[in-house]
Amino acid sequence: MGKAAKAHRAKVAKRNANMKVQEKRMQKLWQEAFEEQMNAMKEKFAAMSGETMSGLTESIENETEETIQEESEPTESVSGE
Length: 81
Description:
81 residues, mainly alpha, 1 helix, 86% helix, rod-shaped
């Protein structure tokens, strides 16, 4: 193998190594962006779910309190006497 062939192989190897580095860098950036979006969506869903659940639990608690108060109030019986 001649001197030119060795130089060519070295250039190709260097080019391939640079391409791999760039590919890994892009994959890492894409993965980070994907994870960031997923976390944002999870937080948004949790907030939506939390609002719904807190609204439901508040209304259920209020209804329960009203029912308990109604049951604990003494009722006067009306009689014809």
